[in-house]
Design brief:
The chain has 371 residues and is of the alpha/beta class. Helices cover 23% and strands 32% of the residues. The chain is built from eight helices and 22 strands. One of its GO terms (molecular function) is hydrolase activity, acting on carbon-nitrogen (but not peptide) bonds, in linear amides. Residues 94-281 form the Succinylglutamate desuccinylase/Aspartoacylase catalytic domain.
C-alpha cells in the first residue's frame, strides 16, 4: 500500500515537471557580466545567446551596472527577426548620457573594436552617467559584407543607411523602415552627446579624422577632445546619424578611424584614448583632459582627384602628407605597365584619404586633399 501511494505521488510530480512551459525550461543562463534586474523594461521574453531581447531601450529604469541587450528592429523576408546588439554601462553616479555607435556602414569595423575594448575596461562603480554603445547598427549590411543596407525586395537592392535617418516607422521602403525603427527604439530622445564611429569605404583609407559642425560649440569641443589627425569643419549631410542627432539637439560628431574590413591596432587604441578623453571632458570618468602635442589639421573643404579612365594606379603621397599645388600625386598605368596619365594636386593641403586598391575604374577616387 505504501509503495502504491509513493508511486502515485511520484507520477503526479513527474507530470507537473514535464508540463512546465517550454520557455521556462529552455531559457539559457544570463551572461555573467549582465546585471539581472527584477524587471527588464520592454522585455520581449526572448533570449539570444543568453541576452535579453527588448523592443526598445529604457535607460531610466535600469539599475546601475553593465547590461547587454539585443534590440529588435525588424525582420527579414523569411519572417526571422533582426536584432541590434547594445552594451549599456550605467554608472553609480548621475551624469551625461553618451551614445557610441558603430557599423551603420556594414564594412566599417574599427569602431566595433573600439566599443568592445572600451566597454571592457570601464568600471561602472566609478562611472558618472550612462554609456550606450551599439557595436553594429547595420546588421543586413554586415551579414552581406557590404557598406550598404542590403535588402531582397525586387530581386535585391542596396541603400546607404547613413543617408536614410531619421527614417520612418510606417509605409514603404525597407531601408527607411529599418532606419526609423533604429532611430526610435535606440537613439531618439535618450542622449546628451554622441560619437558615430566610421572608417573609409573599401579600397580607400583615412587617418584618424573627425567631421564636426563648428557652428555647434559642443560638437567642436568633442572633435578637439578626440585628438584626431584632421578635423573637417562640416555641417554634415542630410540623413546621417550625426546630423539627425544634431537636429534633435544632441551634440554629435562623426569619427573616422582608418580603413574598412580590418582592425587597425594603433588607430583603435588612439580612438579609445580619444573617447575616454571626451568622457573626462564631460565628467563621466576621472582624470585630466589632455590634448595631442601636435594639433590637428583643420580644414573647411576638400578636393577629390578621380581617374578619367580605368587602370592600375600608383599613389606617390602618404596620408597626412602636406602637398603643394601641382604636385604629382598619382600615376595610372595600362595592363602592360605603360603610363596613361599623371595626376596632380589641384591646390595645396594635407592628404586626407587615398586609394589602397591599385585597380581603379573610371571615375574612382585616387587622392583626397583637405584645405
Amino acid at each position: 500500500m505504501f509503495r502504491s501511494l509513493f508511486l502515485r505521488v511520484f507520477v503526479l510530480w513527474a507530470l507537473s515537471v514535464t508540463t512546465l512551459p517550454l520557455r521556462a525550461m529552455d531559457t539559457p543562463l544570463p551572461d555573467p557580466t549582465t546585471i539581472v534586474t527584477d524587471r527588464i523594461p520592454h522585455d520581449t521574453g526572448d533570449r539570444l545567446l543568453g541576452v535579453p531581447v527588448v523592443s526598445a531601450l529604457d535607460l531610466k529604469s535600469l539599475s546601475p551596472g553593465r547590461h547587454l541587450f539585443y534590440v529588435r528592429v525588424g525582420a527579414r523576408n523569411t519572417g526571422d527577426p533582426v536584432h541590434v546588439p547594445v552594451i549599456i554601462l550605467k554608472g553609480e553616479k548621475p551624469g551625461p548620457k553618451l551614445a557610441l555607435a558603430a557599423g551603420i556602414h556594414g564594412d566599417e569595423l574599427n569602431g566595433i573594436a573600439v566599443i568592445h575594448r572600451l566597454t571592457a575596461r570601464l568600471d561602472t562603480d566609478s562611472l558618472a552617467g550612462i554609456l550606450v554603445a551599439v557595436p553594429g547598427i547595420n546588421r543586413p549590411g554586415m551579414i552581406a559584407n557590404n557598406r550598404h543596407f542590403v535588402g531582397s525586395t525586387g530581386g535585391g537592392f542596396m541603400v546607404d543607411l547613413n543617408r536614410s535617418l531619421p527614417g520612418r516607422t510606417k509605409g514603404g521602403g525597407p531601408a527607411g523602415l529599418y532606419a526609423g525603427t533604429v532611430w526610435k527604439r535606440i537613439f531618439k530622445g535618450r542622449f546628451d552627446l554622441a560619437i558615430d564611429l566610421h572608417t573609409q569605404t573599401r579600397g580607400l583609407e583615412y587617418p584618424l579624422f573627425v567631421f564636426a559642425d563648428f557652428d555647434n560649440p559642443q560638437a567642436e569641443s568633442l572633435a578637439r577632445a578626440l585628438m584626431p589627425d584632421i578635423i573637417k569643419k562640416d555641417a554634415g549631410e542630410n540623413g546621417t546619424l550625426e546630423t539627425t542627432l544634431l537636429a534633435s539637439g544632441v551634440p554629435a560628431v562623426t569619427f573616422e578611424i582608418g580603413a574598412p574590413k580590418r582592425f587597425q591596432e594603433t588607430l583603435v587604441s588612439r580612438a579609445i584614448a580619444g573617447v575616454e578623453n571626451v568622457m573626462r571632458l564631460r565628467g563621466m570618468i576621472a582624470g585630466t583632459v589632455v590634448y595631442a602635442e601636435k594639433q590637428p589639421v583643420i580644414g573647411t573643404h576638400y578636393s577629390n582627384i578621380y581617374t578619367k579612365t580605368g587602370g592600375i594606379a600608383v599613389i606617390h603621397v602618404a596620408l597626412l602628407e602636406a602637398v603643394a599645388k601641382g604636385q604629382h600625386v598619382a600615376t595610372l598605368y595600362d595592363p602592360f605597365g605603360r603610363e596613361i596619365e599623371r595626376y596632380t594636386a589641384p591646390h595645396a593641403g594635407a592628404v586626407l584619404a587615398l586609394a589602397t586598391d591599385p585597380l581603379r575604374e573610371p571615375g574612382s577616387m585616387l587622392v583626397r586633399i583637405l584645405k
